Amino acid sequence: MRKTALLIPALVVIIGVAMSSVFIVDEREKALVLQFGQIVSVKEEPGLGFKIPLIQEVVKYDDRILSRDLDPIEVTPADDRRLVVDAFARFRIADVEQFRRAVGVGGLAAASQRLDSILRAETREVLGSVSSNDILSIDRAALMLRIRNGAITQAQALGLQVLDVRLKRTDLPEANLNATYERMKAEREREAADEIARGREAAQRIQAQADRTVIELVSEAEREAQVIQGEADALRNEIFATAFGADPEFFEFYRSMTAYQRALQGGNTMMVMSPESEFFNYLRSAQGAESLRSTGNGDAGAAAQSLPPVEDEAALR
């Protein structure tokens, strides 16, 4: 009975010691076995591990990819146009021994603060060497790669591996927004004025070309019209000359009647001439009197109107 009473406590102590000497490493973790603060072994593979109870302890660190958001920082690019940058980084603990030596008992919290300092310094250095337009352009990806590459070397001293750095937001400070908007507005108005001026210049050029084309077309049409009219006048005169050349006496008579028609207009027309003037030859002749009597009113102008008018008297001479 006494042996059983002593065996049970001894068995409990043995089980407790055995359980305290065994630890489990998850696939998402890495473990360090410490003895009086010194690293004894590293357990990176998942499974069971062993340590000396009461003398050694196990410290576990996360082996997954971690994220770190930086507080917004203000940078000054090469063109002195201040920007507020918000970034984040992806990293993991690559060397747990180096990590332990670098941060000690501070663990991941201390490492995150030191990583923040590294990333802020690299961000200011890289973004300060380019213009704000480069930061806001498609070259932004190359700038983020430069920040990551610069942080990798310094992070290795902490046992960390920086996988990626991203700029989430790049804005102007509130104090500069209004001035920037006004400058952008002025630039757009200037561009609009340039476009309007170029449009008006093009319109004037097109209008001038159209006016020139109109003048050329009208001039050509008038020239052709005058040529046609000249040919028609020549043909008319030729016809008149042929017709009146067949009877010169009738032609002389016709000219006199036309002259009477133009001279003796209706209304208050008054002419003072000698009765012996050659103008009245046909009025004094029997042939002229007969022509006047045939009209029935004795008006020389009416007698002349009974004959077809001569369009161009000078052409018949």
Keywords:
317 residues, alpha+beta, four-stranded antiparallel sheet, three-stranded antiparallel sheet, 11 helices, disordered C terminus
Description:
The protein is an alpha+beta fold and 317 residues long. The protein contains eleven helices and nine strands. It has helices spanning 2-20, 96-103, 107-127, 132-135, 140-156, 174-245, 248-263, 281-284, 286-295, 300-305, 313-316, and strands at 22-25, 29-35, 38-43, 47-50, 56-62, 66-69, 73-75, 83-93, 160-171. The strands form three sheets. Strands 6, 7, 8 and 9 form a four-stranded antiparallel β-sheet that branches. Helix 2 packs across helix 3 (107-127) and helix 3 (107-127) packs across helix 5. Residues 292-317 have low confidence and may be disordered.
As residue ranges, the low-confidence spans are 292-317
Q: Outline, from the CA principal axes?
A: rod-shaped
Strand content: 15-25%
What is the number of strand segments?
A: 9
N to C succession of SSEs:
HEEEEEEEEHHHHEHHHHHH
Q: What does the largest sheet look like?
A: 4 strands, antiparallel
Distance between the termini: 175 Å
- The average pLDDT is 79
Oligomeric status: single chain
